[in-house]
Amino acid sequence: MRRVPEFQRARSAEQRELRRQAILGAAAEMLNEMPVSKVTMNGLSRRVGLAKSNVMRYFESREAVLLDLLTGLSHEWLGEAAAQVEREVPRDGNLPARVRALASAFAHSFAEHEVLCDLISAETSVLEHNVSEDVALRYKRAALQETNGFAALIADVLPELDGESALDAAFTITVLVGALWTHTHPSPAMAAVYRNEPSLAIAQGFAQSLEHVLATYLAGLLAWEKPRTGECSGTSVGDA
After folding, report:
1. 226 secondary structure, DSSP code
2. What does pTM read for this prediction?
3. What is the CATH number of the domain that holds 98?
4. CA dist 123 to 12, 35, 127, Å?
5. Is the pLDDT of residue 96 over 60?
């Protein structure tokens, strides 16, 4: 178990930032072992080897810790996803091919970041509660910046979308990730039911379900968007 270095009272900005990052790192470790619902401030304090009151010098609540962690993980994911899209998604392919490739790249990239997906699934229902207006404002500004970056990545591959539609896509995809993560990670009782009666499990695995939903959503959004330059290669987006 990794513990925070034994600092004396953190007096410099560097020491305070080291302490903050150690707390965030401990929270990430916990989320690799348990869902968001099981992470508590007391458990986090024990993990980092600090009194709860000392942890709260840096974060006002458990939710504030997890929102900060979500911000950092979202930024990391966007950088990795951009590199993956650059490698795997053609820019010169017809529209259906680009839609399918982008949906696949995003689905598999999110599937590799389980902690991020768990945090996204809890964002509005859990993490945005029990925080001050200052924390909420800081988080929402950072989230908007990441959403704008996500929208730019989508528009780079699908220039048929205008800026507003690309931003809508970035927001909606994030919502879909959270919803599908919840549905594809059922409680032990529900998982047992699905094993005994597979026909009751409508959702398949997370990556498979997400890829299907994203391809369907993006194709629909593109069909709704008025073409600005005509359809690529004479191929209907509905063929995606």
Report:
1. P
2. 0.86
3. 1.10.357.10
4. 32, 13, 5
5. yes
